[in-house]
Write a structure and sequence with these properties.
By secondary structure, the chain is an alpha/beta fold. It has ten helices and 16 strands.
């Protein structure tokens, strides 16, 4: 690996910042302390800061030379609403909140790059350091765009990264096209008529109708969707009833739908509503159908992905830049890529051997209470950001 010496020299101090952020997790749009830490660090390094975009977002502005060209690099800063099982010194001090996805590490990598930029600006143009709130369900990227991110800070391209457990430290993974799915939610309320459980003929039971729907939804995937297209329908919650001898009046089903294209999503939403309403009718019930589209699919642009691949190969070698197998998870970097060309890439977080004594017994996987970011990635990720910015603005 060809790591930048100044970034290596600062790695320990940036890791300390990362662990501070990890110990003080903040949820969507509540990242006040985290934003203060970021802004104070940037100010200390002489980097101008714009605050409050997307509620708690921070944008650092690094200029050099006379060119009007610009590039954006993004890190997400929010935590998850879950309780950490780790007991090491930097474990969460706020029960029910945890950096279980590595956003503390993403922030640290971009801060390390920022500190290098404050002293070494080997480019002609502007690097915008985008510290984005509320990735975990809040759509912070969308909110920053609404607040004028690309109007106030026009950029030719934007890049982002996510740590990836299971991928070796020292490796990157990226691919053009769809890499993360759209994220959508549904809620279906099946309404019947309550009755005594021993006299079901006197009521209209919504539970069999709901059970039939769960099975029928999978035929949308197997019989309405083209086999070469990708889609997932998962019913993840069913709530009904209060007593074992009472047929309930209603049954509520909720879940998620994931696709890589809007056309498939349109078809699934339409067919789910048809199946829900007509199945309910066949059982003598009615159905209220609600469908929410949260995050669009994350689709990497081909030219920017190829550019990033070449730059990363110069850092870790071509053999350590591998294709990324798309995942049905979702990522709100998708909103940025709908507005500006760019690439979202993965950086290997290893298998979990980096965790200090006192870690939980679970695996070091994303959204797991025993997860922790690997601080060895900080100089590598920061070096990658510096080299990408320098190459783009050369």
């Amino acid at each position: 690996m060809r790591l930048i010496e100044s970034i290596l020299a600062d790695a320990a101090s940036i890791a300390t910042l990362r662990r501070d952020i990890h110990a003080h997790p903040e949820l969507c749009f509540e990242e006040v302390r985290t934003a203060d830490l970021i802004a104070n660090a940037l100010n200390d390094w002489g980097i101008p800061v714009h605050r409050g975009m997307g509620t708690t977002g921070v944008v650092g502005i690094v200029k050099n030379g006379s060119s009007h060209r610009a590039i954006g690099i993004r890190a997400d800063i929010d935590a998850l609403p879950m309780t950490e099982h780790n007991q090491f010194a930097h474990a969460s001090r706020h029960p029910g909140k945890m950096h279980a996805c590595g956003h503390d590490g993403h922030t640290a990598m971009l801060l390390a790059a920022a500190k290098h930029f404050s002293r070494h600006r080997n480019f002609d143009g502007t690097v915008y350091l985008v510290f984005q709130p509320a990735e975990e369900g809040g759509g912070g990227a969308r909110e920053m765009i609404k607040d004028g991110l690309f109007e106030q800070f026009p950029m030719e391209a934007i890049f982002g990264a996510h740590n990836w457990p299971g991928l070796q430290v020292g490796q990157f993974a990226l691919s053009p096209g769809p890499i993360y799915a759209s994220s959508n939610e549904f809620k279906i309320t099946v309404r019947g008529k309550g009755a005594h459980g021993a006299m079901p003929h006197l009521g209209t039971d919504p539970v069999p109708a709901a059970c039939q729907m769960v099975q029928a939804f999978q035929t949308i995937i197997s019989r309405n969707k083209r086999p070469i297209d990708t889609g997932v329908i998962s019913v993840t919650m069913i709530h009904t009833g209060e007593a074992t001898n009472v047929i309930p009046e209603s049954c509520v089903m909720e879940g998620t739908v994931r696709t890589f294209t809007t056309d498939v999503l349109d078809m699934i939403e339409r067919r789910m509503q048809e199946v829900a309403e007509h199945t309910a009718m066949a059982f003598g019930c009615t159905a209220d159908f609600e469908f929410s589209r949260n995050y669009p699919p994350t689709i990497n642009h081909e030219a920017e992905t190829d550019f990033a691949r070449q730059v990363l190969a110069g850092v870790v070698g071509a053999d350590n830049v591998v294709p990324f197998e798309p995942t049905m998870g979702a990522e709100d970097f998708s909103f940025f890529l709908q507005n500006v060309p760019g690439c979202y890439l993965m950086i290997g977080n290893g298998e979990g051997a980096h965790r200090d004594g006192g870690h939980g017994l679970g695996p070091c996987m994303l959204h797991n209470p025993s997860y922790d970011f690997n601080d060895d990635l900080i100089p590598l990720g920061a070096t990658a950001w510096v080299r990408i910015a320098e190459a783009w603005l050369r």
